[in-house]
Amino acid sequence: QFLLRGQENALSMASQAVATVLHNNPELFNPETGIPHQLSSDQDLYVHEMADPPDFDNPDFSEWSAILERSIKYGEPHILRGGQQYQSSDLSFQHLMGISSDSRYIYALFRVTDNTTLFRRHKGLRVDSGDHLRIHLQHQNREPRNYLATAYEPGLMSIYRMEASWEKPKSGKHERIFTASMHPNPTGYTIELKIPRKLIRENTALSFSIVDIDDPHERTPHMEVGTFKEHTAASLNHVYLPAPSMERMIHAIDLPDARFSITDQHRRVVATAGTLLTTINRKEERSRLTAPLFDWIFGPPIQHFDEPIRDTREFAWEAIDRALKSGQEQRLIRPSYDKQAEVITIIYPIHGEEGELGVVVAEQSNLRILSELRITLENVIGSTLLAILIASLVLITIATRLALRLHRLQQETSEAIDEGGRIISDTIHTEHHALDELGDLSRSISAMLNRISRYNHYLERMPRMLKHEILNPLNIVSTSLEHLEQEIPESEMSQKYLRKSRRGIGRLGSMVQSLAEASSLEEALAPDSEEPFDLRELLDEYLDNYQNTHTLQHFNIELPEESILLAGWPYAIEQMLDNLLNNAVDYSDPGCPIDVTVTLSESKVTIHICNEGPAIDQEIRDTLFESMVSSRKESNPERPHLGLGLYIVRLVATHHGGKVIAQSREELEGSCFTVVLPLSKAE
Questions:
Q1: Higher pLDDT, 32 or 277
Q2: Is 311 inside any structural domain?
């Protein structure tokens, strides 16, 4: 609306400038430029200024090109006779009149559409035996004069003055007052006519009609189409000549794409200048990014609208009347002829001493504004979308890089601690040297791991420290008890107390010994102390000894025939088996066998130790192999249990590159422990 208002104001200022020059100049409204009474637009023939006169010997009609768009089409509504089952290809024509710069002659152009073009017969007296042009001329209070222009062939035409009935010429002489030529084309033919300026006086009526001859044998008129509606004097056309001084004034207003016309107080257009912008193509200026999107959402932009050159009064009749009566400017925005665009119309009155002399009608379409607005919106939205796209890509890149950095940091942090909770590395190298928040986080995690590692190292050394610190006092107490036993007389009560004391000292020593063994074993499993050994041979010997020491327990043993080569620590494997079998014996129901099964594959060996008895509690299954974790309901007074057995099992398995799994048996109630160890590479 803001742009339309600005365009409207600019057009108003231009029309006001023209009207100001014409104020109080009634002499500019020359009566020769028209007839002083109201006429409809169908009865008006307007003469337009031409830069050069037409060349009747050259049928290219280039002299008409500047004003050709102002031609008016005559067809079915203007049929004077014939026309049954009419089609536009039967007969129609576009008509245009112009005047040369010397103002000596008026020229008329007829671009005729005719499906059958027939020239006059060479033999015969009839002058109307071919397609021809009829000229109707009448001065006020004088007898009408009829002229017929016909041709034997393309080129100059013969012109005869005809009787009122048009049946035959008044004489056989050619009239030299007019000059005409006829040239055929693929759609019909074109006629050019030259009329002396002196014939057009005040109150002169001039009309034309085209007569179509289709039958090459009978040569009778088939149809007639004219610039008027019926053969009466009142229906003939009136010629309006341009006012040169007014034309120059209008042309002096440098307002592009605008059409100006001056209408007198009798509603006659006495001067016109300029043309409306009806076609615009700015495809190259449109954004390739947003143009398809805009076309898909809003449809393609308006590049052309139809606005035939006709009397502006047809669209602004009431507004012109209001301007003439009130002397005030009138503004309106009307749709174009085909409703595709809008035309801004400003009507500004021309003041005279005795009233309004006429009005200036200025018109300008909004096609350029619509095009400019659309291109601007497309460019702005395109730039915005591009900026959003770039910003999104930058943010996605930053977010992706940040996510990758966080993932690497999380992965290395997770790998710094093994499944058993042991710290493998106390330094996080990922983002360690970064200067942002992730770098601070990485360094903080490294510092935290370092502190935890030192504390864990302290805890790992504590069992050995306790062993030395506790065993010495225990030895003293044990020695003292032995001396007391020798000194105190043997009595039932004294012996009872001594036995309890020795049992307590033994239990405490066993606990310290167990803690020390677990700590010593972890230190002993160093990579440089590995050795190859045959697990098949170790199992055969170990299980045989174990059965000899547990004669009350029955075992089902299945071992493979071939050797099983491993790289590791044989004594650690035996300690692992000790804990697994002791655990199975402790939890096995009386009289139920313990199954020991060893299976061999291409890259690993699997040891299954299963017993019948209570199932593994689901609540402690995930923490069963942790240190100081036990599911025993009761402890053996002679053998204290600290929950280190299964911890040692996992420790040995992981140091051999394997794993241990605890699960309840499915077919029988009980538990099953599975140890998976990789074979030696030499295997």
A1: 277
A2: yes
